[in-house]
């Protein structure tokens, strides 16, 4: 068992009551109320997140932080029918990823380990990843910088209080820190492992959430661009 898994399992087993107890208030090291955790996937590479767990630098566990669908450029929520031309491009990561779909981790201090369990629907396969957040990333989250948002003729200052995780087929998880007006900075990349329990934490008899018709059509025509993430 690697040290990230051991740390997370120890925290979550011993601190099951912490999540409810620390759901309000500001994390001890934070110069802002809470940091935001967002998730996204490349175009057409649909993902369903089973669960996200967080351990902060004070070794407190936060259970069930989020789950469900993640942010994705294509197909859009308003897409109808199979397009004659696919406008999205899932190869590689965007130079400036958005914040992703997610929520503020209320009451947490800076992140130490993040556990993500998700279904990669285009394969389909279930993965889990233990993401150790490096100290350099935490320092970036504390650093106040001049932003490129010109507010009424005056330059603004901002923090990189958003931690964004991109999830791709093959179990790839890539992490950036960014702010509303500050460019994203890549901080780590993790190769997750197949979760032998399968989808829905082993509670669905191996049945995955269905892939949308548009994403299915894209994959049938172009395949999955493994190796680009």
Account of the 3D structure:
This protein starts with a helix and ends in a 7-residue tail after the last helix. Helix content is about 15%, strand content about 40%. It has about 230 residues and is mainly beta. The protein has one domain. It is globular. The model is unreliable at about 15-25 (pLDDT under 50). The strands form three sheets. The chain has a five-stranded mixed beta sheet, covered by helices on one side. This is DUF2931 family protein. InterPro entries: DUF2931 (IPR021326). Pfam families: DUF2931. Keywords: Signal.
Sheet of most strands = 5 strands, mixed
Rounded radius of gyration (Å): 18 Å
Instruction: Kindly report the oligomeric state of this protein.
Output: single chain
Strand order of the largest sheet: 4-1-9-10-11
Report the helical percentage.
10-25%
- What is the number of independent domains? 1
Structural class: mainly beta
User: Got a strand count?
Assistant: 12
Strand residue content = 35-45%
Mean pLDDT comes to: 89
Run of helices and strands: HHEEEEEEHEEEEEEH
Q: Please give the alpha-carbon distance between the first and last residues.
A: 26 Å
From the spread of the alpha carbons, the general shape counts as: globular
Query: Segments where pLDDT lies below 50 for 5+ residues?
Result: 13-24
Entry summary:
With 229 residues, this protein is mainly β. The protein has helices at residues 3-14, 18-21, 135-142, 213-222; strands spanning 36-40, 47-56, 61-69, 101-104, 111-120, 125-132, 144-151, 154-159, 162-168, 172-179, 182-191, 193-194. Helix content is 15%, strand content 38%.
């Amino acid at each position: 068992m690697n040290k990230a898994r051991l740390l997370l399992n120890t925290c979550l087993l011993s601190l099951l009551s912490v999540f409810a107890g620390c759901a309000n208030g500001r994390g001890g090291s934070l110069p802002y109320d809470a940091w935001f955790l967002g998730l996204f996937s490349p175009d057409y590479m649909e993902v369903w997140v089973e669960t996200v767990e967080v351990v902060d630098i004070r070794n407190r566990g936060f259970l069930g932080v989020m789950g469900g669908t993640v942010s994705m450029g294509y197909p859009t929520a308003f897409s109808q029918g199979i397009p004659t031309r696919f406008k999205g491009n899932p190869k590689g990561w965007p130079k400036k990823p958005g914040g992703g779909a997610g929520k503020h981790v209320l009451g947490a201090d800076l992140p130490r380990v993040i556990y993500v369990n998700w279904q990669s629907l285009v394969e389909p396969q279930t993965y889990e990843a233990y993401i150790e957040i490096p100290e350099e990333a935490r320092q970036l989250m504390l650093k106040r910088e001049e932003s490129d948002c010109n507010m009424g003729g005056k330059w603004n200052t901002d923090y990189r209080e958003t931690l964004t995780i991109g999830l791709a087929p093959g179990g790839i998880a890539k992490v950036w820190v960014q702010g509303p007006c500050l460019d994203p900075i890549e901080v780590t990349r993790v190769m997750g492992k197949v979760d032998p329990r399968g989808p829905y934490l082993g509670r669905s008899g191996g049945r995955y959430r269905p892939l949308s018709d548009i994403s299915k059509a894209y994959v049938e025509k172009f395949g999955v661009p493994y190796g680009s993430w």
